[in-house]
Amino acid sequence: MKRRFAALLILVAACGSVVSCAREENLLGRKATRLIPEKYLNGQAATAYEQEKKSHPQSPNAGHQQIVKRVGDRLIDVAERDYPQACLGFEWEVNLFDKADIVNAYCMPGGKIAFYTGILPVCKNEAGVAAVMGHEISHALLKHGNERITRQLGVQAILIGAAIGVGSSDMDRDRQRIILAGLGLGSTVGLILPFSRSHEGEADRLGLFLMAKGGYDPSEAPDLWIRMTQISKGKQPPEFFSTHPSHEKRIARLTELQPEALELYKKAAVKHGKGEDFR
Description:
mainly alpha; 5 strands; three-stranded mixed beta sheet; disordered N terminus; 279 residues; globular; 63% helix
């Protein structure tokens, strides 16, 4: 039994040494591990995005489409100008899908951006769209998708090793199930969820700076999350069991970053303020 667990620890240590060799700094200076080729992820994302376009109709509101794509063009220009290396291999595309029941938006690896009409009332105006889109673009620029897949693969490898070790032990089946269930929950709460929450914090920061550099009033970002809090009361899970920080923490962080963001906004060549409202 001891020999089996020793072998498992050696396997985990070996995986850790390989992963540590692949660590590099992201745009915010944090050391990050990414083992999946970006070209592969971008290709998979492009395929999934094409399926999304087939599954969901475009918004028939030409004015709303124009606003979302205009904001996208401005933020993409900033990303390409200030973070050209992070944008290598990106084939940008922005679409507004007609799904009023979906309050969401995303940017896939490779720059495929989707907005759903359900989030527009929360955005309220162009600056609100810039706050959401800047956040989502930042996930792609920071290569968070690659990090998450890498982390999940590492956790799965450890859990499989643990399952082999526990399964070949002399423990009774009920005890084996309890141990493996505990390991699964522990890895989710202790490794996967905090990792995701740290990504959200990074995307909030970089996204705020992107919208400011793009000429949008950064004060709209905390206001956006105040509106999000109002529409999602009682629906957000406890932060401990969530991939996202609480709305309150997010508002506080974005408010704290306002002085730095406002300095970037002042330097923007063209200022759009809060832009056009949705009607």
